Amino acid sequence: MRGADAARLPAAARGPGLRLAWRALDVAQLAAQAERGEVDLAFLTPESAPEQLRSRKLLDERYVVIVRKGHPHVASPIDLDQLCALDHVVVSPSGGGFTGPTDAALAAHGRERRVVLSVPSFLMVPELVARSDLAALVPERIARDRADRLQLLEPRSPSPASPSPRCGTAEPPATRRSPGSANACATSPGVSDLLTCLSGHMDHRPCRQRRR
Fold first, then answer.
1. What domain range includes position 36?
2. Do 39 and 88 have their domain in common?
């Protein structure tokens, strides 16, 4: 949730007897929490939505690469070699994971990035990146209102002869999942291909308990 959205929450809670509690998402417990009435509404990606909950598509999202303004080693546009050479922060909702869909996509083509920091939420990432030389791949709407402190890097244009990337699941069973789809490009990827594949299923949807 962006700061402007959070600021509007008090106005949304002015109904008689209505109170709002914003909680960390625990996908493994979500269905049980909804059954017990502990959670009324959750926002997550389709792949992580429990089948027993009703869901509706809310929005489409895409990944972008972010670094701080004035980063000493980065200029836009960025290519895959430059991206992999940076120190990265990754989001691990379950805590402590250092790999995600980006790493699965890179590994499918023998590439890897250097992940030096793991955090439990995307909401923490823009501020961490703005205060360091770290890079991150994040949903665009989380970063686009911070243009005064962050660079949203454009990928180098692919060769006109390059085939369009195809997306398919390519995540090892042991890989910890993070929000978004675990996709890998079937062609040799550039940054543009990588972002397209990662964004392929980043439609966010709210889930509620199914009515019986």
1. 3-59+203-209
2. no
User: For residue 54, which phi and psi values (nearest 5 degrees)?
Assistant: -75, 145
Q: Both 70 and 113 in a single domain?
A: yes
Is there a contact between 82 and 75 (Cβ–Cβ < 8 Å)?
A: no
Largest CA distance in the chain: 61
Q: Report strand pairing: 150-153 vs 167-169.
A: unpaired
Q: Identify the H or E element spanning 154.
A: none
**The total number of structural domains that make up the chain:** 2
The tens-digit pLDDT sequence of the chain (212 residues) is: 444 454 555 555 566 777 788 887 888 899 999 999 999 999 887 878 888 999 888 888 888 899 999 999 987 788 888 999 999 999 987 778 899 888 988 888 888 999 999 998 899 999 999 999 999 999 899 998 898 999 998 766 443 333 333 333 333 333 333 333 333 333 445 677 766 666 554 444 455 555 44
Whether residue 90 is found in the same domain as residue 181: yes
| Integer angstrom CA distances of residue 58 from 11, 41, 180 | 21, 13, 14
Helix/strand/coil for 57: coil
51 and 132 part of one domain: no
